[in-house]
Amino acid sequence: MKELLLVLLLVTEAYCRSHSSWCQSGCQCRGDLKFTVCSRGLFSRLPGRVPPNTELLDLSDNHISVIPERSFGRNRKLRFLLLQNNNVSVVEDGGFSQMEFLQKLDLSRNRISALTEGFSVGLAFLRELQLAHNLLARLDSRSFLHLDGLQRLNLSSNAIHSIQVRSFSPMSSLRQLHLRDNRLTSLRSGTFSMLRSLEVLDLAGNQISDMQTSVFKPLTSMTLLNLADNRMTTVHFKTFLSIHTYSTHILLEENPWNCDCDLQRVFRKLRSIQRLFLDDYYNLTCREPEALGDYRLTDVDTELCLAETVTVLVITGTVLVTVLAAMLMGEKRRKKEKKRKHWTQQGAQSDESDS
Ligand SMILES: *[C@@H]1O[C@H](CO)[C@@H](O)[C@H](O)[C@H]1NC(C)=O
Ligand SMILES: *[C@@H]1O[C@H](CO)[C@@H](O)[C@H](O)[C@H]1NC(C)=O
Ligand SMILES: *[C@@H]1O[C@H](CO)[C@@H](O)[C@H](O)[C@H]1NC(C)=O
């Protein structure tokens, strides 16, 4: 009996030791589910012991600030890596290398201010990258270099004000690009080149006032373009005409529209294009001219060109009247002249007969 107990004790201890040696304290390891959850574990560094068969590693809500090179070399089976709400400011080159099964990486709510080429090394199969609420200010052609398979990229709520042409072009499979709540002021042609699979482009909440006319042209799969809450006062017909898709919904509300006859004409033409849907057209409000401030565009749009028409009519009328008057005056003068000549001739004749 004693021996049996001893054996049992030894077995349990061995089991516990082997188990704990692969599960860092502060984490919960669910080997059966291949989950390792180290959320809210007060970690300031990556935990050293994560079971090698882990497919989902949740490290959210900690204080991790550095991702050293090849951090996950022993966890090659990872498919989901959650690092949101940490203090990550440095991802060393190759920090995520050798993760050929990783599908989703969540780095939102950290302090990342730059994406170097080394950041994306080894992430060729990543499908979703969450980078919202970081400190990114500019993107360049190396920022996403190795992300060939990425389908969803969330860059919302950063401080992005500059995007180099071809920054996004390595991601030819990208389907959703979220750039909401950044500091973009203009969009240059070439910014979205190569994004032939892109379906959703969210640019709401920026300061965009200026777009080159062919900027959206390469986006032949785009179904949703959100430009709400920007600084657009007017829009060029060609910019949207160049969108060659089957059907695209465009959102434009909360922009400071300058409601003049040109704007009305552009919108009239845009709304007649079958493949474009201006979903919030009835919500567009005017900022300029001052007299129309806060009016809805739809409430005044019939009058915008009317005023112009009236002005044209008035001018035409005035010109006509002036011309007519001039003609009449001329005619009158000619008649008078004729009469005067007639009289003078008669006078001369009578003079002659008198003498
Ligand atoms: C976050 O990281 C910075 C250095 O980048 C460090 O100074 C700060 O103490 C860290 N904060 C926490 C809560 O760990
Ligand atoms: C992008 O990130 C923000 C903030 O984390 C989140 O609220 C939003 O749902 C994300 N959008 C997508 C499409 O993933
Ligand atoms: C228009 O604005 C109203 C109120 O602000 C909102 O409820 C509605 O969803 C908007 N419509 C569209 C198409 O965005």
TrEMBL record:
InterPro entries, A to Z: Leu-rich_rpt, Leu-rich_rpt_typical-subtyp, LRR_dom_sf
PROSITE patterns given in the database record: LRR (PS51450)
Keywords tagged on the record: Glycoprotein, Leucine-rich repeat, Membrane, Repeat, Signal, Transmembrane, Transmembrane helix
Annotated signal peptide: 1-16
Record's keyword annotation contains Transmembrane helix: yes
Region span, Disordered: 334-355
Membrane topology: Single-pass type I membrane protein
Keyword Glycoprotein assigned: yes
Gene3D superfamilies given in the database record: Ribonuclease Inhibitor (3.80.10.10)
Biased segments, Polar residues type: 344-355
Composition skew (Basic residues), residue ranges: 334-343
Entry's Gene Ontology BP terms: axonogenesis; positive regulation of synapse assembly
A cellular-component GO term for this protein: membrane
Subcellular location(s) per record: Membrane
Record Pfam families: LRR_8 (PF13855)
Transmembrane segments: 310-330
Protein name from the UniProt record: Leucine-rich repeat-containing protein 4C
Organism from which the protein derives: Liparis tanakae (Tanaka's snailfish)
